[in-house]
Structures are given as C-alpha cells and as structure tokens.
Amino acid sequence: xxxxxxxxxxxxxxxxxxxxxxxxxxxxxxxxxxxxxxxxxxxxxxxxxxxxxxxxxxxxxxxxxxxxxxxxxxxxxxxxxxxxxxxxxxxxxxxxxxxxxxxxxxxxxxxxxxxxxxxxxxxxxxxxxxxxxxxxxxxxxxxxxxxxxxxxxxxxxxxxxxxxxxxxxxxxxxxxxxxxxxxxxxxxxxxxxxxxxxxxxxxxxxxxxxxxxxxxxxxxxxxxxxxxxxxxxxxxxxxxxxxxxxxxxxxxxxxxxxxxxxxxxxxxxxxxxxxxxxxxxxxxxxxxxxxxxxxxxxxxxxxxxxxxxxxxxxxxxxxxxxxxxxxxxxxxxxxxxxxxxxxxxxxxxxxxx
Length: 353
Ligand SMILES: [Zn+2]
Prior knowledge:
The protein is of the alpha/beta class. 40% of the residues lie in helices and 10% in strands. Helix 3 (62-72) links the parallel strand 1 (50-55) and strand 2.
C-alpha cells in the first residue's frame, strides 16, 4: 500500500484521505454538539424504588434531599459521612431525626491518632460508637495506601496486619466495610496529551497519583488480600471495585470472594461506554451490584442513572461532576426487571438490615 500511496501522491482521493488538521483551538473552548438523532427515553422515576447506596449528604438539609428523593423515586439514600468523631455523630443524628426509613449512614475511618500504639483499640471503640449511633458500615477511603502514614513515617499499606482486628470487629458487628482503594487508571498516568481524563485531571491536579509509591494494581492487590484474609467480613468495593476500565478483573474478584459487593457510583461513564460487556456483567452478578451515585442529589442526575440502567438509548451524556470524566458519551444497558430490582434495592436492603 505504501508504495501505491507514494506513487499516487498527487491523486485527489489520496490527498483527501491523507489530510489532517493542525489547529490551535483551545480544548476548553471546544464543545461539539452531537448531530446524532436518537430517542431520549429518560425515565422520570426508576422501575423500582431505588436505594442510593453511595452518597455524601453531610452539608445538606434532610428536608431538601427528601424533596428530590420524592420527586424521582429514590426510596433511601446512604450518607457516607466524611466527618468523624462528634461531628459525625451530629450528622447521623440530624438525618435519623428527619427520617429513619429514608436515610442510612456509613461511618468514615478516622485516622486521627494513627501514630499511637493503641490506635487499633481506639478505632474499635470509635467503630462501636458509630454503630451505636446507627452507622451501617465503615468506609476506608483511598488515603489508605496513598497518604496515611504510621508513626515511623511509612505509608500504611491497605493490608497492614495491624489493622486486621478492625475488619474482624466489623464482621462481629455485622457492619460491611466499604473500600474505595486506588482510583481510575488514568489517575495513575502522567497528565499529558495521551491521558483520556486530561481535562478532569487539569481541573483537579491533586487527583493524580502518577508516581505514587504503590501503583494501582499493587493497591488493589493489597485490598484483595484483606478481603481474602477476612472471609466473615462483608466488603463493598466502591466504584465497581475501581476496575471498571477492565470488568474482567471485577469478575475475577467477585468469583473468588463471595463476601464482596460492588457499587456503581460515579462509573456510569465507564459502564456505558462498554454497554455489551457491562450488560453481561450485570446479568451475571445481579446479586452483588449496588446502585449508588456519589453525586449531588438532583433529579436530573438520578434520571441519567435510570436512563443508563433501564433504557437502550444511545450516545448520551453520562452523569458527572462539573469537570467531566472524559470526552465520550454512553449507551443504556437496557437491564431486565429482575436485575434492576436487585441492583436498585434488594441487594442494598441485605446490607442495611
Ligand atoms: Zn464517594
């Protein structure tokens, strides 16, 4: 072919198919509008009352959130408080007072005092206190493995044996442990022209973990070691176990560890760009997947989630924070009713008790 192209270098057709643009339009000024004509079957309400298993409501007024929930068919929201200690207790009480049925809570791992010799027993006391206040789980965020340091100044590994009694205690209290370990793959790559989440990372340079001491696969391996080490503890791996770019990894994890659930929060962008694979994944693991959003509770946001899960609409914008996750659109997964009911509701009810 190359020889032919060289020989025909002046041919009109060859010139046409070889032409490339060299423009300096700023990326921030480029907002193409899709010309695709495609139906919009966005549901106003979900097919089944939905439980948002992953959200953060600390700063919000329960009454305002309830209005949104009523408007778009959300039965319950799980507030993963990002506060600890007395501030967390206050927030848990605020939402319980507003409605015990419509709100639930997950506590946030408190690293204050991590340098102390008695840190684990201190953490167990804190966990019991949060459980007494109605928390239905505890979340370990990505700071474990990326920034939390022990007394010696070393990064604390996710699978550090010293934390083991805490995971056993969670099992004893029947509290699921949520892990948000690592982050999207693009966050571990350089912020450059090849990064598919360049604009998002440009808006949030602190979300980049390129060059971190533990890389993504190392962090996930540490997490999976904890899951294997504590078979009696139930784990919820947030954000599709942080492997939505490669669902075969999530399948391996779910196959190997029956004590694991995943939530889909903040990953419609990933699921909806691989609708065939994602649909097969939902059908196979319908009992282990939780609906969650991780975005400000607004009707439009919830309806975009419903659109992605329920419809076969094509090529629409995924729900996202303002800086977006990448320049692509998604397709609906067209999930059947039995799967939707489990994902929206039944699986969460098992964990919330
Ligand atoms: Zn979150």
